[in-house]
Design goal:
Structural class: alpha+beta
Oligomer: single chain
Helix content: 25-40%
Strand content: 25-35%
Number of strands: 8
Shape: globular
Distance between the termini: 34 Å
Radius of gyration: 16 Å
Order of helices and strands: EEHHHEEEHEHEEHH
Length: about 200
């Protein structure tokens, strides 16, 4: 029987800020040169710690792609690759050791790989698009997240889309901020309504 993430579509798109943001499933091995470049980018290395030689990085992604509790996607803007995201099932993820997970909880890990978009306001529409994708294609009542507490960018995005800080948690590689985003609150959030207005109601 397919898992929640295996049932997710291979592609998705949503308009925001007069641009179209989207997702497409990772293509292996075609995407490896791009993923290798992103994982070795200066702004990515500390957070992701995957600046590995290509053979080791390939082994990592082969394992990730074989793991049926998650789906790996390339983030697109106007059909151009700008990032990478892992969408996962919270109850079957290691994060479930740090909070009381519900069966349909979903989460995501996001990497903006293209240096040209880092710090240029792309995070808000991408978070909106990812949240919309998850809630529209799963039965999740809640999205969970655990970004590094040192990453300031998530803090100013979180409130606009009803991502609420629960507490700090100590994970092996970081002190993380545990966030919850409830389905109804997301679709009523100021950030979502700003993109979709009356059409969202």
């Amino acid at each position: 029987m397919p898992t929640i993430t295996q049932n997710l579509p291979d592609t998705f798109a949503a308009d925001a800020y007069e641009k179209t943001f989207g997702l497409r499933a990772v293509k292996y091995p075609e995407d490896m040169p791009m993923l290798y470049q992103w994982m070795h980018a200066e702004h990515v290395v500390e957070q992701w710690q995957l600046h590995l030689p290509m053979p080791q990085l390939q082994v990592h992604f082969e394992k990730m792609l074989a793991d049926d509790h998650q789906r790996l996607y390339i983030v697109l803007c106007e059909d151009m690759p700008i990032g990478y995201v892992e969408i996962y099932e919270g109850a079957r993820d290691r994060l479930s050791h740090y909070y009381k997970a519900e069966e349909n909880d979903m989460g995501w890990h996001l990497l903006l790989g293209d240096t040209a978009v880092v710090g240029k306001g792309y995070l808000k529409p991408i978070v909106m698009m990812l949240s919309k994708f998850v809630f529209e294609h799963t039965d999740a009542k809640k999205i969970v997240g655990e970004p590094d507490s040192k990453v300031e960018a998530y803090k100013w995005v979180a409130d606009g889309f009803a991502y609420q800080l629960q507490r700090l948690i100590d994970m092996p590689e970081k002190k993380a901020s545990l966030y919850f985003c409830n389905r109804d609150e997301f679709f009523e959030s100021s950030g979502y309504l700003k993109f979709y207005g009356a059409a969202a109601l």
